[in-house]
Amino acid sequence: MAGPSGVERVKAESRGLRGAIASELADDTSPQVTEATYGLLKFHGTYEQHDRDTATALKQAGREKDWQFMVRVRIPAGRLTAAQYLALDHLAARHGNGTLRVTTRQTIQFHGIAKRDLRDTIAFIDHTLLTTFATCGDVARNVMATPAPVKDRVHGMLEESARMLSSALLPRTRAHHAIFIAGQDDGADGEDEPLYGPTYLPRKFKIGLAHPADNSIDVLANDLGLVAEVEGGAISGWIVCVGGGHGMTHNKPRTYPRLASPVGRVDHADLLTAVEAVVKLARDFGDRTDRKRARLKYVVDDFGADWVKDRLAERFGRRMDDPPPLPRFTIPDHLGWHAEGDGRWWLGLPVPSGRIADTEGARLMSALRSVIARFDLSPILTPQQDILLSGVREEEKATVEAMLRTAGIAFAEDRSPLARWALACPALPTCGLALTEAERVREPMVAALEAVLHRHGLEGERISVRITGCPNGCARPYAGDIGIVGRMPGFYALYVGGDFEGTRLSFKLADKVAEAGIAAALAPLFARFAAEREAGEGFGDFCHRLGRDALLASDPAKLAAD
Ligand code: SRM
Ligand code: SF4
Questions:
Q1: CA distance 57 to 222
Q2: Rounded distance between C-alpha atoms, residue 130 and residue 228, angstroms
């Protein structure tokens, strides 16, 4: 039988995630860290990367790669204060590449941080009362929740619950504070980790909290998805869904995306105990010998729902109630102007691929800085990589809008539904796992698809497209209507047949479609959709109803090279 993976040994010997981080960061003779430190730094919220655009030229010139770090912030439910946002904006210019990247899990990432600036960057973020700790690594990550800043009890409870879980699930080790805030390794041997234990979890662990009428967080893509039950205007309980995740490897059928399965129902008062029970389940049964199969989703499939319920009962203290049927999910449009319910408004702005930057045509970064500072607005990051500016007074609306328009910012109504809902992961040049482009081809891919939709009179259709540079699924490509998944340089696998609401996974339609041929490959499907769809049927639902064989028969030549 295989023994624990190398990462398990590094965690066990790390003295509570300290390892040699402090000494390696202090060593200015190298822009890089060792493999063990690379793994431990993830727990503190940072990944070593290199600029893949310049790697070949630098190698040919006999020079080092351009080593740099990505830093991720923990922002429960995506909520920031104006002061926090402005501090992050300042930091992007000071140490990062001058951009902020809104992630699909409602956080912010910095790219392009040099090793010498890493400690300062992380300490700065901690001083804003945010943290980068436990945003990556084998722990419970940023907790997502429905982004809409509606001022009612239910939305308030969702936000409070996300914050509560995020704090309660932070590891207990003082390593992060010692190394990054106090500035030195305190020499401790490692603290007790009552929840995680000495080797933390076998793999990453993700939690999302959904409003029953708003599945914009893709709740079933999480290791633990919690769906609120509402009674008398408040949350009375939660439906506990376990074993969601998207990561997979091409041509390795033992890895696959999976939707979380409902396994129980708990009272709101028992939320933390229930969450800890599921974390312990992952801790105790996730496969520590094989990181490709260590997520909770494989435990659920390998052992079955009844076994999971029994093991959860042992960790929860009693059997959870049987889960009721999941409510019918919808995904409201958070972009544009919306009343918050207390006299104020929020403005949802599209942020293509989540990249907040100043470009020649649109000074998004500067404009956001100005309106947030001037009107003390609270930004909320959405799972669609967009930003909601919350707390706008009625009398401020026109000025906010004018300031953004003057900076050349496109509003939701200036974009097609396809562009509004399209997601793309960062991929090249920063992601070390990228096989293809994603963020940088989002605009041309969307434009090509828009042109085909237009030909079939479908330009007003709400269709979700999710583009990733590899099969790990960071933009959740296997949920939604269309998934475009990096396969090999210049080629993508095409997925269709999921649903807009995130309750059904898609299937692979074609394995290797050239980047320039994606719109043409989908064109026959759009033609049939326009002609044969049933009333109210979405594109993903249509593809699901017809199935792969019938869709391929639409125009097999265009889907060739399978
Ligand atoms: Fe992800 C790894 C970016 C959401 C599944 N993800 C990575 C890394 C860190 C690459 C690496 O390990 O070297 C990427 C950094 C790229 C870069 O240059 O910034 C990366 N993931 C992202 C973000 C930034 C994509 C985005 O467009 O916003 C998202 C950050 C979320 C956050 O704020 O915490 C992001 N990643 C996701 C999601 C979506 C979600 O959670 O809702 C998934 C699919 C759900 C899931 O977890 O299964 C996802 N990322 C992965 C995986 C596959 C995990 C697996 O079980 O196999 C990897 C690879 C890994 O862990 O080995 C990965
Ligand atoms: Fe990188 Fe793949 Fe995630 Fe895209 S999906 S960010 S390419 S790991």
A1: 40
A2: 26
What is the number of the ligand closest to the CA of 485? 2
Find out whether the beta carbon of 425 lies less than 6 Å from any atom of ligand 2.
yes
- From the CA of 486, give the closest atom in ligand 2: 7
To the query of whether residue 72 is one of the catalytic residues in this protein, the response is yes
Rounded CA separation 485/534 (Å)? 28
**Predicted pLDDT of residue 562:** 37
Cα–Cα distance measured from residue 115 to residue 50, given in angstroms and rounded to the nearest whole number? 11
Cα separation, 100 vs 91, in Å, equals 9
- Would the pLDDT of 403 be above 70? yes
Which class in CATH covers the domain with range 336-415?
alpha beta
For 121-141, the pLDDT digits (tens) are 999 999 999 999 999 999 999
Tokens of 139: 């722990």
Domain range annotation of the chain: 201-332, 336-415, 419-558
Query: In sequence order, which residues have a C-beta less than 8 Å from that of residue 147 and are 6 or more positions away?
Result: 77, 78, 106, 216, 217, 334, 380, 381, 382, 383, 388
pLDDT at 530 over 80: yes
Helix, strand, or coil here: 111?
Answer: strand
Given the residues 136, 241, 470, 543, the one annotated as active site: 470
Tens digits of residue pLDDT in 319-334:
999 999 999 999 999 9
Topology (CATH level 3) of domain 419-558: Sulfite Reductase Hemoprotein; domain 1 (3.30.413)
Is 72 a pocket residue for ligand 1 (Cβ < 6 Å)? Answer: yes
Q: Per DSSP, which regions of 243-343 are E strands? A: 261-267, 336-339
Ligand 1 neighbourhood includes 331 CB (under 6 angstroms): no
Contacts of 498 (CB under 8 A, 6+ apart): 478, 479, 480, 481, 483, 504, 505, 506, 540, 544
- Tell me if 201-332 shares its fold with 419-558: yes
pLDDT band, residue 354 (cuts 50/70/90): very high
CA 476–ligand 1 middle distance (angstroms):
9
Q: Which class is 201-332 in CATH?
A: alpha beta
The two structure tokens encoding residue 335: 């972009």
CB of 107 closer than 6 angstroms to any ligand 1 atom: yes
